C-alpha cells in the first residue's frame, strides 16, 4: 500500500474517532463516516497533485 494514502487515511480516521462519541447514534456515526470516507478519497488526489507527492 502507498504510504501517503495510508498516512492520510489514518489521520482522517483518527480525527473522526476523536469526535465519534459526540456524534450520536451508531447509524448517524456510520453515515458521517461514509461521507468523510468519500470526501477523503476525493480529496487525496487533489492533495497529491498540490503537494507533488
Folded structure, characterized:
With 53 residues, the chain is mainly α. It has one domain. The chain is 81% helix and 0% strand. It is built from two helices and no strands. The protein has helices at 3-19, 26-51. Helix 1 runs antiparallel to helix 2. It is elongated, with a radius of gyration of 13 Å. 0% of the residues are buried. The model has no long low-confidence stretch (mean pLDDT 83).
Taking the sheet with the most strands, its summary is: none
Give the CA-based shape. elongated
Global structural class: mainly alpha
Mean pLDDT: 83
Helical residue percent band:
over 70%
User: Radius of gyration from the CA trace?
Assistant: 13 Å
Helix-strand topology string: HH
Any low-confidence stretches, pLDDT <50, length ≥5? none
| Strand portion | under 5%
| Counted beta strands | 0
- The DSSP helix count reads 2
Topology:
Blueprint: H1 3-19, H2 26-51
Helix pairs in contact: 1-2
Amino acid at each position: 500500500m502507498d504510504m501517503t494514502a495510508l498516512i492520510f487515511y489514518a489521520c482522517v480516521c483518527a480525527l473522526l474517532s476523536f469526535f465519534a462519541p459526540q456524534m450520536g447514534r451508531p447509524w448517524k456515526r456510520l453515515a458521517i463516516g461514509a461521507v468523510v470516507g468519500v470526501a477523503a478519497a476525493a480529496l487525496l488526489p487533489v492533495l497529491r497533485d498540490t503537494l507533488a507527492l
